[in-house]
Amino acid sequence: MKKITLLSLVTITLLSCKSSQLAPVREDALKPTAVTQPTPHDTDDPAIWINSKDATKSIIIGTDKDTDGGIYAYDLDGKIIKKSIVLKRPNNVDIAYGITINGKKTDIAVTTERETNKLRIFSLPDLTPVDNGGIDVFIGEALRDPMGISLYTRKKDNAIFAIVGRKTGPDGTYLWQYLLSDNGNGAVKGEVVRKFGSFSGKKEIEAIAVDNELGYVYYCDEQFGVKKYLADPEAKDDNELALFGQKDFKADNEGIAIYKTGAKTGYILISNQQANSFMVYAREGADGNPNNHTLLAEIPTSTIECDGADVTNVNLGAKYPNGMLVAMSNGMTFHFYDWNIIQAAIDKHQK
């Protein structure tokens, strides 16, 4: 693969953009540590799988959103190393560790397949289907079209849940939560355990992220704000805990990623899609209130119209000693950033 300069990358991605209202990449935009090989169609959302035996061999999973699409695996240099079976418009993707299938602990990637109204589940790192053709979602609803997804692993019992959003849906039950488990025949099944989520009606809900350790789920009610709920369905509490970022975004608030600096501290990064930047909020809240998430910084990035992002604090080797941020960009690519670059930009804003 030829070396891609920031200037050539910007040229390529601008030519491929679908909107005539895009903001240009700013001169002070952070340069990516690596850029992936392009996919054939339209990248949308990434997830980071940590190799527990050797973190330097961790991989990035990303969706290529088209009728003839799929999910791709990349190494830490951005090289495509594997592609899944063909999927019909896979949208968002997330990863969970250690679900039991046929008595064996298995790491999985779960993606929404919009044109079939299903969840598709693949074992990692081999991307082998383990879903017996997929799990139907939003059964009985007039509005289905699954888009966003985040996986929640409950601390007390390691139960794994998929929290799923759709292209559009009713206020109060926009999101459905599914318990994922072994169906007894070597595949994963899903059981609806909860329906929740307020919706402004302004645009849609796509970006969803879960903080497993603190037990919160965040989602972007696009062009309205970022919402926060408890993630555990057994809490039987569907009250909205927080609404923030309402005046912070140029238009769409999109992909969400949560970077952890401690047991309860860190950052919530949210794509300011049309401004080509990330808005940064304190994971722990502010003023002694864990639900008071005020803006800390805006970080301009090389990405164009970022839809989805993921982040980790795990040492992935010399290029990413404190982890990495992965962000989708138009041009059918994902951009990788050494976390130290992101942290330096946040610190600069705090001075």
From TrEMBL:
Stretches assigned to the BPP domain: 20-346
Highest taxon in the source lineage: Bacteria
Keyword field contains Manganese: no
One Pfam family, short name: Phytase
Keyword flag Signal: yes
Keywords, sorted A to Z: Signal
Signal peptide boundaries: 1-23
Protein name stated in the entry: Phytase
Biological source species: Flavobacterium qiangtangense
